[in-house]
Amino acid sequence: MFKNLMLYRLGPEWPASAAQWEEALATEPFVECSATQQKSTGWVPPRGQEHGALVETVDGQWIARFAIETKAVPADAVRARTQKAVEEIEKTTGRKPGKKELRDLKDDALIALLPQAFPRRSQVTVWIDPSARLLVLDAGAQGKADEVITSLVRVAGKGFAVGLLQTQRSPQAAMAAWLAAESADEMPGALHVERECELKGSGDEPAVVKFTRHDLATDEVRQHIKEGKLPTKLALGWQGRVGFMLTQALQLKKIAFQEGVFEEGAAAKGDDRFDADVALSTGELSGLINDLIDALGGEVEATAVTDQAPAAPPPAKPAAPHPATAADDDGPPF
């Protein structure tokens, strides 16, 4: 259900209910890219059922899903078609196109080729814990998270406020202390260091050291920390139930539930399986998030990304594509 987590705190006003969130998301439903459109975003039913609800309530948790569809045309194809048009103009008129005309020719080439491009779609699962005012995005890249937050700003209107979850101790400082520790007793009780990390030095060309499937409780690792290299990510385990990679930006990646955690929902099918997966995964991850915050010294007040955003109409679809020829893709589809 969840592979990555980005954590935000919501303000006290919006959404007041799952129904209010549903009504807001319905103003930006997902529509597939048109023939000459490079990108389309919007909200889809999280159960995957056509015309289904855009917000599902399971065990007190609210779940939605945001879709991002892009179409990319190879740059070589655009250049080849543009060059052909340039040669035709030179042949028929005896002149070379100017800079503005050349840009227009590139745009025309892209528009002509877009209907042949295959769309790629990815989805971001969005989880709200209403009692904790916690907003969680299953996004592996900041660009996807920004797309979701931007949509929420548009649809929510006045009363919406959200900020990144921040802790008293930075993840990087905590990870460095855990790796430098000489004893397992210095680790937080609920967490333990696994066998993967990345250390990065300072300077214009910083040294980077990666450990994979390697014991990290060694003098070699501690020496790197003493020399000033700091962890940018560290594999951790939580209570023997969930493994994950913690980053310096307080993102949780490569989330993996250990064997046996989902046994209760393994026999369920269809809607029952969806409900079971949501209930079990959010239940486990809520405990992990709380213990991680405690291990980082507790939470500080969030820095607002947006506060009382004004009402806005649904996003306008681009009339003509940007001349870029490759879609931004930050990972495989969800």
UniProtKB/TrEMBL annotation:
The alphabetized list of GO BP terms reads: DNA recombination; regulation of DNA recombination
An MF annotation (GO) of this entry: double-stranded DNA binding
The record's annotation in InterPro entries points to:
RdgC
Q: Keyword Cytoplasm, does the record have it?
A: yes
- What Gene Ontology cellular component terms go with this record? bacterial nucleoid
NCBIfam families, sorted:
PRK00321.1-4, PRK00321.1-5
Protein name, as recorded:
Recombination-associated protein RdgC
Q: Which organism is it from?
A: Ottowia testudinis
